[in-house]
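Lab meeting prep.
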Amino acid sequence: MIAIHAAPPPPIVAPVRARQAARESQTFDQDVGALIGQAWLRAIRWRPLAAGFVQAPLVAVLDTGVAPGAAGLANRVDTGRAASFAFGDGNPLVDPQGHGTMVASVISTVASGSEAAPGVRILPVQIAGPGGETSAQAVADGIRYAISRRARIINLSLQGSNRSKVEQDAIDEAVRKGILVIAASGNTGKDTCGVRGITQCEYPGAYRHVLAVGATDEGGAALPESTRGMHVALAAPGRDITAASARGPEGGPRFETRTGTSMAAAVVTGVAARLLVARPTLTPAQLTEILMASARGSRGALDRARGAGVVDLPRALAMRPPALDAREPDDDAPGARRLPALVRPGYSFGQRSGMLRTWADLRDYSVVNLKKGQLLTAEATVSRGNDVDLYLWKPGTPPYRGGAKFARKWLVAGSVNKGSTEVLTRRADRTGAYLVEVRLAGAQRLVRPRYVVTATVTR
């Protein structure tokens, strides 16, 4: 299916009717009570949101639509700003497939407060039709719409085998705007992503800057169908998840049960929303650090199915906010050029620090301004037990693309010795703004090491 839009369509306004009967409120309470009594919530050690007023974060659900009248979703869906990018005349508040409504229900259940103070606001962004098909352009348009509406989290419970620059660019833009992007790892059960010589990955989970989530059972064991890979950041329950049915408002069943990483991603999104309720100023990098550092099960070892482990709500809420990597985003050439240079014109020395992360943030770039004939000496030091490489790229280098052809055209030099310190020396053959890349190498487990890079320019 192809769904291309030059610009986001006007928001579709279809407010939920006011709840006028006491019986309706009683039904809502019964629905919420049924949802929060499930075993998978005990697996993340869920506890209810404390009573009282909260600043509910806006979470964009890019999916098949959300039925706002479904069980337990009253006063939790932003119907006035919902939008559709699906092929044809879509309606984001109608969900024939039911998938988006279930995802929204899981997020709401984890983040739930009272009906008056719901703890989360769901922004329905329809990017897929009744059969669940979508396109890269529809996904990218949906992401940019969520950015325009100032969402704090974007949930992508999607799966596809083709990488798209259009989607990656939109995700990069979202991260630069302070939005956390959470995605399902996929439901193929394959372990071919990040394996040497094999590049079969599931997207959007395998994109850079995405928090990819694998699925487990209630005991924390990875589901066989959950896609593996070094891109998997952490895991959450995904088996037999009962959530609201989109058919409920029309007299159909009020609940449905599904299994898969779509549901697991929604669980993590709900936990992230709870973190934002507690600390509204957390950045995407801080949210990611907290979620991974507080996860249970892997003890720092590489787990290609569960990443850092199973998400744990009370441990995440109890963690102190980590220090900011203030220089982010510097993970591609355009981002680095918007930041202060490591060595500015007319200067001979510069230093900066940063943080890398296995798979999702493998490389950082810094600008070094050189005149023809000047000698650059760059040194990178990473925390003990880790390995970094250094690369020098020509002025004008575009965003990184793997392959020998790209390297032959743009790479000046590289230093790829093993160890926690790397030194690169090179004389400039022309004047310009070069890029020094620090790249995490040889990681056999999920790590988030800090590094320091210095550059000295001499004649």
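Slide two material, second protein:
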Amino acid sequence: MIDNSKLAGRQGRKAIGSNPKDSLAAETMNKILVVDKEESTATQAQDRLSSIGFETLHARDGMLGFRMAKDKTPDLIITDAMTPVISGYELCKAIRHDEETQSIPIVVMTEKHRMEESFMFLGIKDFLDKPVNMNELERMVRNKLNFSQLMQLQRSKVLISGNPEILTECRQLLKYDRYWMGCYADNNDACLVDAVKYAPDVIAIDLLAPGMTADELIKRIKAVPELKNSVILTYYAAFRNKEYIAVQVQMMEIQYMKALAMEAGSKEHIGAFNPANFLNLINIYRREFNFII
């Protein structure tokens, strides 16, 4: 039996603030990491943000900041441009190149706009002048978290089950996509768990992925009430460096699995996985289009 409590993710965390309006952003996006060697600035920022309902963390150098970003998964990072051990720029670069942290919003504190152009090359556009005005800090945090929350709510979710190579391609494909948030499973058993956890709008299943068979996976997904509106697509990994007879045998298996998957309730079979066409194919099923499917 699937534990539907898994559906309650980070959105279940409660805000600390007493005023519901003040804590609106904190209800779902309440953990902020401050990276700054200056105790006075960090303490003032933590006191101000805690007073309006946000949980705050503090790292005194860039290396510790990166470790905490990976371990604590904050919803926002505020860092000084000049941090010990590794600089604020190197910290931001490491965060942007790590799959676990690359989507975390970042605000950089600089002195008189120093180094801002360098940070912009990393896609960072939000800066605070030092010494930091706490009213400006609060305004920036509210704007960043509300915008990030809105984007998360607006983006459709796609769950992809497949081999590591295809998942890597999909991560790159969806990395900066404004319409889709990707979730990934390297086998069909994990795909079922993640489907319940994330309630995706679209689920793309490799017909030959390890774990339970694709048709069994589809049947189990269809049995979960929360997933009744999820669109299920199937595909297969393109053949590479295989002999003709081996390809023919595998194509027969794919055709057989395709028939079983369609019978189990898949919406469409999209053929061999092609990253160039994948976004166009799933865009048909974006929730904004309000198709009856």
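Talking points for slide two:
The beta strands are 31-35, 55-59, 76-80, 106-110, 127-129, 156-161, 180-185, 202-206, 231-236, 268-272.
The chain is about 40% helix and 15% strand.
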